[in-house]
Design brief:
Layout lengths: L1 H15 L2 H4 L8 E4 L14 E6 L6 E5 L14 E4 L5 E5 L7 E6 L5 E9 L2 E8 L5 E5 L15 E6 L5 E5 L8 E5 L5 E5 L12 E6 L5 E5 L4 E5 L5 E5 L5 E6 L4 E6 L14 E6 L5 E6 L6 E6 L5 E5 L4 E7 L1
């Protein structure tokens, strides 16, 4: 079964790449954007935001933002925010701990994981695990120390916990940072790392996002190479898909629908007619089903989807949060 899916995925690289020359015109957009859905107390505003994930209840949503600014240095604001289904802030924590929060994940046991992809004033290059109430439970990496060893990262971009408990970190954010996936056991013990900077199978350039399908395959948003790479949990390369644009954010729902946010495509970074927006398709066979054009006030990076199929996205440069509902 898996071999058939993998073979289909490899074939789809050729089958769907020509879609880029057509643009998203033939694809339906089944969503409408809701502006001003999320509310914050007082005069607080949303900062640069890359990370978002759904609560295990399938309706509440968690955002990992940068303290109302471009980073959290010198701020006393909490960057980890939970909103209820009505868009009201109901929990926040993590103040004073981060340089620049990036991707995040809420696991099945209701633990909240956040990657700190910044580096300033002795902070950054770490992954934190919190309880649902904000208690710090685990720290991976060394504060403010960049490296490629078993206990160091260099600007980690995302983190994901598999159903079995193993921890995967997308380590690196382009330039001279790392370009690898790091695997840990549930207690934080280093298991292995794979990948190096490059464009070949298993190589990565800016591993920006992680997701996992129902069969346990690990999807990596290999943004610098304008592709998704698929691995098993031991790091074996299975397939690459280029039909989902230049992925900044990934999310796979319980029905194995894959959502990929493209926040960078243009004729310089990903030529061939690609447009910024949200590409929606099957994580099983890679077939594209829909496209949501980019928000007018900034490029969307993170994405999460609730149990009703509503979309939640983050604008990093635009410093905003968005909700999309089905038409």
């Amino acid at each position: 079964m898996l071999a058939a899916v993998v073979a289909a995925g490899v074939a789809l690289v050729g089958a769907y790449t020509p879609l880029s020359a057509q643009g998203p015109g033939p694809l339906p957009n089944p969503y409408s954007r809701i502006d001003g859905f999320f509310t914050l107390p007082g005069t607080r505003t949303i900062g640069s935001t890359a990370g978002v994930d759904m609560d295990p209840d399938g309706r509440s949503v968690w955002f990992f933002e940068r303290c109302g600014a471009a980073d959290c240095i010198g701020s006393n604001l909490a960057p980890i925010l939970k909103f209820d289904p009505s868009g009201h802030l109901v929990a926040s924590f993590g103040a004073g701990m981060f340089a620049a929060p990036h991707g995040g994940h809420v696991d099945r046991d209701r633990n909240v994981w956040v990657a700190d992809g910044g580096e300033r004033q002795g902070k950054g290059h770490q992954v934190f695990k919190f309880s649902f109430s904000g208690a710090l439970l685990m720290t991976l990496g060394r504060a403010g120390v960049a490296g490629d060893g078993p206990d160091t990262f260099s600007r980690p971009a995302d983190v994901l916990v598999a159903p079995g408990g193993d921890i995967f970190v997308a380590d690196g954010h382009g330039g001279e940072t790392n370009a690898r996936i790091v695997k840990f056991s549930s207690d934080g013990t280093f298991i292995k790392a794979w990948g190096r900077k490059g464009s070949g199978p298993g190589e990565v350039d800016t591993p920006h996002a992680l997701a996992m399908d129902s069969s346990g395959r690990l999807f990596v948003g290999d943004r610098g190479n304008s592709r998704i790479q698929i691995f098993d949990q031991e790091g074996t390369f299975l397939a690459e898909w280029r039909q989902f644009g230049r992925p900044s954010g990934l999310f796979i729902d319980r029905n194995d629908i894959l959502y990929s946010t493209d926040s960078q495509s243009d004729e310089t970074t990903n030529p061939g007619g690609w447009q910024k927006g949200i590409w929606i398709g099957s994580a099983r066979d890679g077939k594209i089903q829909a496209f949501v054009p980019d928000a007018p006030d900034g490029s969307q990076e993170g994405i999460a989807v609730d149990r009703d199929g509503n979309l939640y996205t983050t604008l990093t440069g635009g410093m905003a949060l968005r909700k999309y509902v089905k038409k």
